[in-house]
Structure formats: structure tokens, C-alpha cells
């Protein structure tokens, strides 16, 4: 099987072109290729194939084989892949995901995509739709006991569930201790991604993320969007925020008029291979 290793801000996936390749068991294949010691090494597997309702369809599988609805860093890399590998010559493409169709604007330089702006769609705040086991329209600054302490969380769905927690020191935070406890807390029927966020200013924050099914990753596009929306809901930032992640920076903009979230960031091809 031919594959391409790509990453968006260090959030790395193995990409497979289903126009040329075939996968029988997606979960098994994702576990195999994701293994950093016995496989290729990645946060998961992303497939690129035909769509009945968009230019392309992407599917995302976590390192544990579970399927995710959406991946912001992944969809940017899909945009780069389909243009750089000549599957399209359009600089605006629509990609079908488990969280709906995402519109991508490709920033091309020297015939290669450098950055991608993605319309991430409308956020979901209602607890039952995220889902969170609460009967509330919005879960903002809500107390939750996880591990040995009480936290205040703000929950958002960007096609997949996120719990955002504000802390003082992201760099020294014990994410390996608390990340799994949030992910598997009974408050989250479908588990959750958790963003631990430090406010720098009203236009700049730092974030680390624990992704369900993949542990800590170097970046999470939907999580970065959820982070900024949580910042806005709590009155910490303006509507355009630069977010620092372990693997790089993303710019998130919330357009109140359309209620859409826009993400701009890099997409990088690492290497091609055969497994």
C-alpha cells in the first residue's frame, strides 16, 4: 500500500489515496500504521476518496482504531494532498467529513500548497448535542471533579466533542495524568477531547490537547477552534486569536454574523512510502 506521511502543526497522520489503494479493515490498518515503534508512526490514519456530495471525502481513524468525525489539521493536509498530487487544479475545494462538508481555500506558492484556510462551520453549544451529560443550552465555566481536584470546563462541539479547561501554566501541566481522566469521564457519553489553555492576552493563547483515542497530540484543529470559542464565551479574548500549540501556530477567527469558525494554518508533506 502506498501512503503519504503529512502533518499540520505536528499533528501527523498517514494519508492513503483510495482512488488508487484499497483498505479492507480501516481500524486494524490505523492501529498498524500509527504505531511509532512497529509501524510508520502517526496520530492516526486518514483516507482520501471520492464523494457523492463534495470534491473529495476524508475519513479519520485514531491511533486506537476508532473513527473520528473531523480533524482540522487533517483536512488542511487533505487540501494540500489533492492539489500537490494533481487530483485537482482548483484552489478552492469542498471536502466531505463525518461532521459535514468543509470548504477549503488553498494558498499556493510555487505550485505547492503552503497554508489552508478552512471554514470549520458552526459550533455546537447545546450539551446534549456535543454530547455532555447535562441538560443545558451552554456549558460555560461549569464545575467538574476530575481526579483529585475540581475544574471549570466550557464545552463545544466542532463536529466532535471538546471540553476546554483554563489553567495557569500549560508548559508544566501534567496532561498525562489528567487527560485520560477527562477523556473517559462519565460526563462525556462519547468520550471527549480536552484542551488545557493558558491565556496570554485578548488575542493570543497557548494550548495543549489530549485527544480521545490518540492521547496528547502536537495540535488539534477542531480543538483549537473549540478553545477560542471557549475563550470568547468566557470573555477572555476577542474573535480573532493566535493559538500556540506544541507543533506550531494556528489562527482562528469567529465570524458572529455567519456563526462560522475559520481556521488558517500550515500543511506539510513529510515523505511518501510503501508499506
Count up the helices: 4
Q: Biggest sheet: strands, sense, closure?
A: 18 strands, mixed
Class by SSE composition: alpha+beta
Total tally of structural domains: 2
Features:
18-stranded mixed beta sheet, diaminopimelate epimerase activity, Diaminopimelate Epimerase, Chain A, domain 1, EC 5.1.1.7, isomerase, DAP_epimerase_DapF, DAP_epimerase_AS, 275 residues, 45% strand
Secondary-structure blueprint of this entry?
Blueprint: E1 2-8, E2 11-17, H1 26-34, E3 44-49, E4 56-62, E5 67-68, H2 72-84, E6 92-97, E7 100-109, E8 112-121, E9 142-146, E10 149-157, E11 161-166, H3 175-183, E12 193-201, E13 204-211, E14 215-217, H4 221-233, E15 240-245, E16 248-255, E17 260-266, E18 268-274
Function: Catalyzes the stereoinversion of LL-2,6-diaminopimelate (L,L-DAP) to meso-diaminopimelate (meso-DAP), a precursor of L-lysine and an essential component of the bacterial peptidoglycan.
InterPro entries: DAP_epimerase_AS (IPR018510), DAP_epimerase_DapF (IPR001653)
Subunit structure: Homodimer.
General description of the model:
- It is a single chain.
- With 275 residues, the chain is α+β, with helices and mostly antiparallel strands.
- It folds into two domains: 2-110 and 265-274, Roll (Diaminopimelate Epimerase, Chain A, domain 1); 127-258, Roll (Diaminopimelate Epimerase, Chain A, domain 1).
- Helices cover 16% and strands 45% of the residues.
- The chain has four helices and 18 strands.
- The protein has an 18-stranded mixed β-sheet that branches.
- A hairpin with a 2-residue loop joins strand 6 (92-97) and strand 7.
- 46% of the residues are buried.
- The model has no long low-confidence stretch (mean pLDDT 97).
- Pfam families: DAP_epimerase (PF01678).
- It is found in: Cytoplasm.
- This is Diaminopimelate epimerase.
Amino acid at each position: 500500500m502506498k501512503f503519504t506521511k503529512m502533518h499540520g502543526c505536528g499533528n501527523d497522520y498517514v494519508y492513503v489515496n483510495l482512488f488508487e489503494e484499497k483498505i479492507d479493515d480501516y481500524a486494524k490498518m490505523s492501529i498498524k500504521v500509527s504505531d511509532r515503534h512497529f509501524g510508520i508512526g502517526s496520530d492516526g490514519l486518514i483516507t482520501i476518496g471520492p464523494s457523492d456530495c463534495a470534491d473529495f471525502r476524508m475519513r479519520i481513524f485514531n491511533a486506537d482504531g476508532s473513527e473520528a468525525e473531523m480533524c482540522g489539521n487533517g483536512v488542511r493536509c487533505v487540501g494540500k494532498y489533492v492539489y500537490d498530487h494533481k487530483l485537482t487544479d482548483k484552489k478552492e475545494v469542498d471536502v466531505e467529513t463525518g461532521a459535514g462538508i468543509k470548504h477549503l481555500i488553498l494558498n499556493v506558492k510555487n505550485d505547492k500548497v503552503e497554508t489552508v484556510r478552512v471554514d470549520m462551520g458552526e459550533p455546537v453549544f447545546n450539551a446534549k448535542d456535543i454530547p455532555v451529560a447535562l441538560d443545558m443550552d451552554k456549558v460555560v465555566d461549569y464545575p467538574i471533579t476530575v481526579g483529585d481536584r475540581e475544574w471549570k470546563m466550557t464545552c463545544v462541539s466542532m463536529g466532535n466533542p471538546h471540553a476546554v479547561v483554563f489553567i495557569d501554566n500549560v508548559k508544566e501541566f501534567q496532561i498525562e495524568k489528567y487527560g485520560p481522566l477527562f477523556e473517559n469521564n462519565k460526563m462525556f457519553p462519547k468520550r471527549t477531547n480536552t484542551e488545557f489553555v493558558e491565556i496570554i492576552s485578548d488575542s493570543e493563547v497557548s494550548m495543549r490537547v489530549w485527544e480521545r483515542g490518540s492521547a496528547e497530540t502536537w495540535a488539534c484543529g477542531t480543538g483549537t477552534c473549540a478553545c477560542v470559542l471557549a475563550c470568547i464565551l468566557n470573555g477572555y479574548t476577542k474573535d480573532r486569536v493566535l493559538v500556540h500549540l506544541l507543533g506550531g501556530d494556528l489562527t482562528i477567527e469567529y465570524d458572529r454574523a455567519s456563526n462560522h469558525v475559520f481556521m488558517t494554518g500550515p500543511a506539510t508533506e513529510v515523505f511518501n512510502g510503501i508499506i
